[in-house]
Amino acid sequence: MLAEILKKSFEAYFDAPIEAWKEFSSLCEAISFNKDEIIKPQNTTEKYFYFILKGSAGIFLWKGNNFVCLDFAFDNNFCGDYMSLLTQKPTALEVVALEKSEMVRVSRDDFYKLSQKSVGQVIMQKSAESSFVEKQQQQIELLTKTAEERYRILQTKFPNIHQRIAQKHIASYLGITPQSLSRIRNPAS
């Protein structure tokens, strides 16, 4: 079952054989998090690579006197502090469950064991490439689009985001205040 979910979630990037996903899923451990539970604290080293079966997570960075939301991940997506996982160094990033979440995780060591196989190498490469493209697109939008345009893009990408994620996190991700987000959401008021 898990192998099929992983395969379906990843097919847009690379159509790996089900056997590769069975091997990956055999290394996974089921774990759950409560809403607002810290998955990976800031200034620590990431030990796991997570896949969200149900729920959501956010990646945050402390700036000034509060956390800024850098990214979201929802059902059927990977999440975690990938930079720390790759470098094996602590980062200032914090990963938090944004709602009650069911996930599976694979340890860094097991994750890298998979990379010793050709299909595992391709899966890791495609994961890194898609993550890079997504972050570049996010940066381009931040520099070239208005807050309202970025909000509409976010709504298209995650249609029910307001039912799942606190407004303060959505506003933070967009780089605006919650009050500005309210005005964008309700232009007539």
From TrEMBL:
Classification via InterPro entries: cNMP-bd_dom (IPR000595), cNMP-bd_dom_sf (IPR018490), RmlC-like_jellyroll (IPR014710)
Signal peptide positions (record): none
Domain Cyclic nucleotide-binding residue range list: 33-114
Entry-linked SUPFAM superfamilies: cAMP-binding domain-like
PROSITE patterns: CNMP_BINDING_3 (PS50042)
Superkingdom of source: Bacteria
Full protein name: Crp/Fnr family transcriptional regulator
Organism: Marinoscillum luteum
